[in-house]
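Section 5.1 Outputs to date
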Amino acid sequence: MLDKEKLNRIWSSFQDGQLSAIELGQRILESAVQSQGSTTPDLDRKRRCGYPEVIYGPGKSPDSIRTVANALLAESAEVLVTRVTPEQVRTLTEMFVHTRWNHVGRTLRIGQQATPIAPEQVMQTTDGKTRSVAVVSAGTTDEPIALEALETLAWMGVPTRLVQDVGVAGPYRLMSQVPLLQSMNAIVCVAGMEGALPSVLAGHVRCPVIAVPTSVGYGANFAGLSALLSMLNCCASNVAVVNIDSGFKGGYMAGLIANGSGL
């Protein structure tokens, strides 16, 4: 968040002729950036984009994550860290009192004043409407990516339903879930192998389907590339595709749709 008093001082200096127009712009931009050693938390992202910055865990030390998380917690009630390792979590849970770790989804949610609630406990009542997202996975091997999407949606405050192991090898499994899926505002569909599930699912629903290819599969799956290409070539008009194994991105996109961002 920009410091209003600091901005007022900068503006006064400009009005007094102490700063040129270019210097005014530079000072304002500098005031929006708070560099802390090797990290520069984006504290203005919530205002610009609707949600705060998310911390990507791999390659970061627990101290680096703590620094950014503390800065974000000064402005937000909860911080999301993705792709954390057990070693990082052991240290971070000693640094922060209120945490929720999903060891399968590899996410850590850090609360400012309370422990973040589980996805199944999220209730959306801000405008009297309940907008829900289903996270659907083709097989149990896709579960880590599906749960990353689920925790992302919980961090966004979006109610969710998790539907697992309904891949195309057993079509009746998906059909039994169609009535539920038809009531959703958006669906995150997670699948590996040949990536066929989004195509089949999308033909039964009227909402956007965010397809997430996973690296699950044998050799010709090419670590998810085969599933990605299949999803990109989907004939169903309501399917959009994110990157391989990107449960966070799939969940985030579905959350924006469910919350009516931009409307």
